[in-house]
What we know:
This protein is mainly alpha-helical. The protein has one domain (2-85). 76% of the residues lie in helices and 0% in strands. It has four helices and no strands.
Amino acid sequence: METxxxxxxxxxxxxxxxxxxxxxxxxxxxxxPIVNIVMPFVWAFSSATNPSKANFFKAQLxxxxxxxxxxxxxxxxxxxxxxxxxY
Length: 87
């Protein structure tokens, strides 16, 4: 069993766990205006970032794009209904 575990760990690219301290610092950085727009891109696409943290911010960016698209569709339907009801 031990050799299987060692082989498994050697074959995987195991990174360190993101600590609570690092997450708190991350959240504090995200409270700063303008910086909170730039840093998710830096953390998502930097090779120096922990893979777990990078994956989290990639998922966050994908969700942000999806929400913006849904928002524009919703806004477009409201504007369409308002302008359609005027004629």
